[in-house]
Amino acid sequence: MFPENFYWGVSQSGFQFEMGDKYRRHIDPNTDWWHWVRDKVNIEKGLVSGDLPEDGINSYELYEVDHNLAKDLGLNMYRIGIEWSRIFPWPTTYVDVDYSIDSSYDLVKDIKIDKSILEELDELANQREIAYYRRVISSLRDKGFKVIVNLNHFTLPHWLHDPITAREKALTNSRNGWINKRTVIEFAKFAAYIAYKFGDIVDMWSTFNEPMVVVELGYLAPYSGFPPGVMNPEAAKLAMLNMINAHALAYKMIKKFDKEKADKDSKEAADVGIIYNNIGVAYPENHRNEKDIKAAENDNFFHSRLFLEAITWGKLNIEFDGETFVNLPYLKGNDWIGINYYTREVVKWSDPMFPTLPLITFKGVPGYGYACRPGMSSKSGNPVSDMGWEIYPEGIYNSIVEAERYGVPLYITENGIADSKDVLRPYYIVSHLAVIEEAYEEGHEVRGYLHWALTDNYEWPLGFRMRFGLYEVNLITKERKPRKRSVEVFSRIISEGTTKGLQDEFRLKVRGERYENDSG
Ligand SMILES: O=[N+]([O-])c1ccccc1O[C@@H]1O[C@H](CO)[C@H](O)[C@H](O)[C@H]1O
């Protein structure tokens, strides 16, 4: 059984959900991604789909409809993102703040923000958008949801990141995003300001969604379709250090300016965490091969421990080698971890490619995890989603156990599947929740489960083709229509408080290479 006080919910972001109103009154043309997805070169090269976010599901206007659908499902938690560029479409750089630098490591130790700075920021902020997000959060609260507000979900204001120029000029431009310390400083201001404006109605905050996706896909995987699409290991390292630094400063600022408790069930006025993907999900291809084992270890260390150890204990692996650590207490600060889990990774050894990133000694093995072919089963015989992602529910157990080492409360903040025909999703939901339930019964506590996503939305470089919604959205009429079997199974698990009895009913039948459910 799941405990009585378990949180059930959904997660969403700004860029992927908000836009799509008929008259284009609520488009936000001020992010790096806005420019990235309409760039001719990117479209010609097939790096992005050509779909545009302004043709999206219009949660900007239809948020109440969505909140009601979520309520009818029986949910009591909802995670949203506040889009930085909507609040500050123009630079906040000219609002002067003092900060101190740790010159040994070139990191920002501390930043001085007080009431007068916040008042200056208030002059700059787009008050219409402030009022809008206040309405959204209030609508959720009125309906009984506990709200998580996430501050950064991949997108940056265009005044901080011009990804097209960054790509063309090999990152030598000045608006070069997370490799620039300015972004760290401005993020701290943004976090302070948002905490000041919404502290009375929000208790749960996260600084970042999946910072390592920005690092790895932005600077180490130029074909991924993520901005700025440059291969540069030095930049990857710098972006990562800056995001660690930005988390630490934002953590302190939110704690400083949100002193007001909003929810009855909160222990603190501000619980500030981080949402992180792929925690400990790398497995060796060959379990008996020392080198493959080491490859998986290095992958897990580079991808999740390096960042999470820094913000949990102030222990930073400054050489990025898994060996040389420095103790930087000012990086410390994290109250909870959100685990985003979709699938595993299977890796094998590959000799180090980058002198500055000696931990990169791993290569993904095609046929497992994220590296499968849509419509085929994985090498282990597991079904695969429209994204080409293997269904591997066992992996979420390892993620939970791995995340426990940081000693803070855990939430599953994303879990879901691109499955336009809704053939695999019911099984996906039941099987992952069954593993979470079992883990819980063994004493591995997770406090909530947020599905990705309530509705279809804009899947980054892949656009609208990937359908993650419990509700299908017609992009012309913006109508939401339930994917019936998934909606049914999810709400049954919630109302019954268990997956038991449902696992058999929603198992998949294998027919040759394809998987079908009982109705299909
Ligand atoms: O966006 N990603 O490239 C990515 C790679 C691996 C795991 C999660 C992940 O990002 C996550 O994925 C889901 C579904 O794809 C959403 O798009 C969400 O915005 C993102 O946080």
Brief synopsis:
The protein is 35% helix and 16% strand. With 520 residues, the protein is an alpha/beta fold.
Describe the structure.
There is one protein chain. This protein has 520 residues and is an alpha/beta fold. It has one domain: TIM Barrel. It has 15 helices and 19 strands. It has helices spanning 14-17, 32-36, 40-44, 59-73, 84-87, 115-124, 127-142, 163-168, 181-198, 211-219, 233-257, 290-313, 394-403, 425-441, 484-496; strands spanning 7-11, 77-81, 98-102, 107-112, 146-152, 204-209, 271-277, 282-284, 315-317, 325-327, 337-340, 345-349, 362-364, 410-414, 448-451, 471-473, 480-482, 509-511, 514-516. It has an 8-stranded parallel sheet with strand order 14-11-7-6-5-2-1-15. It has a 3-stranded mixed sheet with strand order 8-12-13, covered by helices on one side. Strands 3-4 form a two-stranded antiparallel sheet. Strand 3 (98-102) and strand 4 (107-112) form a beta hairpin. Helix 10 (211-219) runs antiparallel to helix 11 (233-257), helix 13 (394-403) crosses helix 14 (425-441) and helix 14 (425-441) runs parallel beside helix 15 (484-496). The model has no long low-confidence stretch (mean pLDDT 97). The chain binds 2-nitrophenyl beta-D-galactopyranoside. Residues 13, 16, 209-210, 213, 217, 277, 340, 342, 414, 452, 459-460, 468 line the site of 2-nitrophenyl beta-D-galactopyranoside. 2-nitrophenyl beta-D-galactopyranoside binds next to helix 10. InterPro entries: Beta-galactosidase, GH, GH_1_N_CS, Glyco_hydro_1, Glyco_hydro_1_AS. The active site is at residue 414. One of its GO terms (biological process) is carbohydrate metabolic process. Keywords: Glycosidase, Hydrolase. This is Beta-mannosidase.
